[in-house]
Every structure is written in C-alpha cells, then in structure tokens.
Design a protein that fits this description.
two-stranded antiparallel sheet; 59% helix; mainly alpha; 8 helices; single chain
C-alpha cells in the first residue's frame, strides 16, 4: 500500500503502522510478566520438567500412528476414485486434507521423509483441484501414496539418505518411477 493511501484511523494500543502502511503488533511481554522480572523460561525448564514433557509426548505416539494409518486408508480410497480426463475436486480435496494431516503427524513421530512426501502430495494435488487430471497425475499421486505406505510399514524413521532410500525399496516390486 503506498504511503499516501495508508488508512489514517487509529490502531489499538499494542499495534503500530510503518511508513508503508503495514500493521505490526507490538510485543506485550506477557510471558516475562508471568515469569517475573529477571527470570527466563530456560530457568524454569529443568531436566525433570523436560523429561516429563518428552515422556508425555512419546506416550501419544501410538495413538498418532493409528491416526496416520487411518489417514492412509482414506487416501487409498480417494486415490482409487480418481479418473483420468475428469475433474475430481472432491477426491483431491480429501487427498489434500489427509496428506496435510500425515505431514504434520509424521514429523512429530520422527518420520521426516514421510512428512516431506506428504507435503509434496498435498501441494501437487492443490494445483490439480478444479482441473481435469491425467493418467500421469494419477500415477504420480498413486506412487507417492505407495511410498508413504512403505515408509510406515517398514518403520522408516529418521532423516534418511541415499542408502536408506535404496533400502526403502529393497525386496519390493515398486519403484518411485513405476509407469513413467
């Protein structure tokens, strides 16, 4: 917004506007007020508190993994309904939602590669909503789903490297390039 056209109305107390009209929220330092002067959050986070938090988080992983498995099944159903040469917005929206869910939850459960593949899947499908999809689109989506499924079936956690990627597809009849 040009400087001259910035609205002239007043802003709430904790907001400010720069010369380009961009509104910023000023820090209210509420955490510092709650902690007390001179104390930092780090001083409160002792090893035992951190261990309890990590233990609570680790305890939720089995439930989250069940949710991921459910999302994968929903993805499989939606992918099976895709038809080349048609607009499949309803199925693509479901794929986008479930892929986003898998992306978020798999990162939390130490499946960063699955998180990356799921991110790619939802971004790719977002570009196809309201468009006629091709057989190549369906093949790419299906292959990505296969990769996600194999990652979870083989418990492929951690960052992964080229050697790990080769291990991911050992003894399987699939390839990331199936049908291309």
């Amino acid at each position: 917004m040009p400087k001259d056209s910035a609205p002239k109305h007043s802003l709430p107390k904790n907001f400010s506007r720069d010369e380009d009209g961009v509104v910023f929220r000023k820090a209210d330092h509420s955490m510092k007020k709650k902690l007390g002067m001179g104390k930092s959050l780090k001083s409160l986070l002792k090893d035992d508190v951190i261990e309890k938090a990590e233990s609570a988080m680790a305890g939720s992983i089995p439930e989250i993994m069940n949710e991921i498995k459910g999302a994968l099944k929903a993805l499989q159903r939606s992918v099976a309904e895709l038809k080349a040469g048609q607009v499949c917005s309803q199925q693509l929206v479901m794929i986008i939602e479930k892929a986003f869910e898998i992306k978020a939850k798999s990162g939390f459960c130490n499946y960063p590669m699955a998180s990356s593949f799921a991110r790619f899947l939802y971004l790719y499908c977002e570009a196809l909503v309201n468009e006629s999809i091709t057989a190549a689109d369906i093949n790419l989506i299906s292959t990505n789903l296969i990769i996600l499924t194999v990652i979870f079936e083989r418990n492929f956690t951690g960052e992964g490297d080229n050697e790990s990627l080769e291990d991911l597809f050992d003894d399987t009849d699939i390839s990331p390039f199936t049908g291309l």
